[in-house]
């Protein structure tokens, strides 16, 4: 199965100049744990709810600071040509719970660990192992 069959295509993004507060509010509004950060339509980073807490609040970064101050600029991405199994392995190798899917540096979808679990892929040991590997504490 190709990843484009299960990825979420309606992906909300924010700009690097968006504030921590704006990004956190958007996460709450759309009930997600990460937001890709794009500039002129191109992916430049990603921010998770954990980033906001650990890199933002815990470091006493003001809530009106630009999200660019705390985003992860080195983003692992996938493409629509990947299979679900390849995406699962990529996520396991990098211990990530969300994978932006890009084309020409633009976000066209996102896959979460939950997407892999929800799509009844439990018979695929590769996906099942990915969930276990990512969920394990280091």
Describe this structure in words.
InterPro entries: CBS_dom (IPR000644), CBS_dom_sf (IPR046342), Diverse_CBS-Domain (IPR051257). Keywords: CBS domain. It contains 5 helices and 4 strands; from the N terminus they run αββααββαα. The chain has 138 residues and is of the alpha+beta class. The protein has one domain: CBS-domain (Roll), CATH 3.10.580. α3 packs parallel to α5. It starts with 19 loop residues before the first helix and ends with a helix. The model has no long low-confidence stretch (mean pLDDT 88).
CATH evolutionary superfamily: CBS-domain
Provide mean pLDDT, rounded: 88
CA distance, first residue to last residue? 30 Å
Q: Give the biggest beta sheet.
A: 2 strands, antiparallel
Q: What count of helical segments does DSSP give?
A: 5
Low-confidence stretches: none
- Write down the overall geometry: globular
Helix content: 25-40%
- Beta content: 15-25%
Keywords: CBS domain
Protein name: CBS domain-containing protein
Quick rundown:
InterPro entries: CBS_dom (IPR000644), CBS_dom_sf (IPR046342), Diverse_CBS-Domain (IPR051257). This protein is α+β, with helices and mostly antiparallel strands and 138 residues long.
């Amino acid at each position: 199965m190709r990843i484009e069959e299960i990825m979420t295509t309606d992906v909300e993004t924010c700009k690097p100049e968006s504030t921590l507060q704006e990004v956190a509010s958007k996460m709450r509004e759309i009930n997600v744990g990460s937001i890709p950060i794009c500039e002129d339509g191109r992916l430049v980073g990603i921010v998770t709810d954990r980033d906001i807490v650990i890199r933002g609040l815990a470091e006493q970064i003001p809530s009106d600071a630009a999200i660019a101050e705390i985003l992860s600029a080195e983003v692992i991405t996938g493409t629509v040509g990947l299979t679900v199994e390849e995406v699962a392995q990529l996520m396991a190798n990098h211990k990530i719970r969300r994978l932006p899917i890009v084309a020409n540096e633009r976000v066209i979808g996102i896959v979460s660990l939950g997407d892999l679990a929800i799509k009844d892929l439990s018979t695929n040991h590769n996906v099942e192992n990915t969930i276990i590997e990512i969920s394990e504490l280091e």
